[in-house]
Design a protein that fits this description.
Immunoglobulin-like, rod-shaped, 434 Repressor (Amino-terminal Domain), 2 domains, five-stranded mixed sheet, alpha+beta, 6 helices, 206 residues, 8 strands
């Protein structure tokens, strides 16, 4: 079966018209007429415009416009199988063997553990003092209570050391002289990281 281009070319040649003459008569750019006659649909504008070109040319060349449009629809929408190139999607992700998966997961867990330990080493221990309050007026001996890290030691005024219980809670008593005193409390963990607090208090009697 002939194509649209072959039929239009034959009709033009039958009337002894050049492409330029037919372009002048139809007001269609000669490059589009040449593309149509060569069945080069990729060089043409949209499908709607191309159908308009075909009807215009058919009228000038006394051809059956409906038949040519039908042939155009068939050829335009049917891919040229001789020029079809199949592209296979290639995966660039490495394939992981099921035997290696446990080692990979174990390695990730180990890395997370190292990061956690490194953070523990760099982070100073927490230190919260519940008693006494800052600027409190007290009677000696003074009870000191608070929370810290479970692996830390609490030192009060550089001479009293307290070991917290399994939850990090600690309580101790210390004798202080009468007058205004500054309690110096620090918590030192096993990596030597220190948290330090000062509490001014007033001792009125022993």
């Amino acid at each position: 079966m002939k194509t649209v281009g072959q039929i239009i070319r034959a009709g033009r040649q039958k009337r002894n018209l050049s492409v330029e003459q037919l372009s002048h008569l139809t007001k269609i750019d000669s490059k589009y007429i040449t593309a149509l006659e060569s069945d080069q649909y990729t060089s043409l504008p949209s499908e709607t415009f191309t159908k308009g070109f075909i009807r215009n040319l058919s009228q000038r060349l006394s051809l059956d416009a409906d038949e040519l449009v039908a042939i155009f629809r068939r050829d335009f929408r049917q891919p040229d199988r001789t020029h079809t190139v199949k592209f296979h999607r290639r995966s660039y992700l490495p394939k992981v063997s099921s035997q290696l998966l446990p080692f990979i997961i174990g390695g990730l867990v180990f890395v997370v553990y190292l990061i956690f330990q490194f953070r523990v080493i760099l982070t100073p221990p927490k230190l919260e003092i519940y008693r006494p309050f800052s600027a409190a007026v007290l009677v000696s001996p003074v009870e000191i209570e608070g929370d810290t890290a479970i692996d830390a030691s609490v030192i009060v005024n550089e001479d009293t050391q307290v070991k917290p219980d399994a939850s990090g809670h600690f309580v101790t008593k210390i004798n202080l002289p009468v007058g205004e005193v500054v309690l110096e409390i620090k918590s030192v963990n096993r990596f030597g990281r220190t948290t330090f607090k000062k509490l001014p208090v007033t001792i009125i009697s022993k």
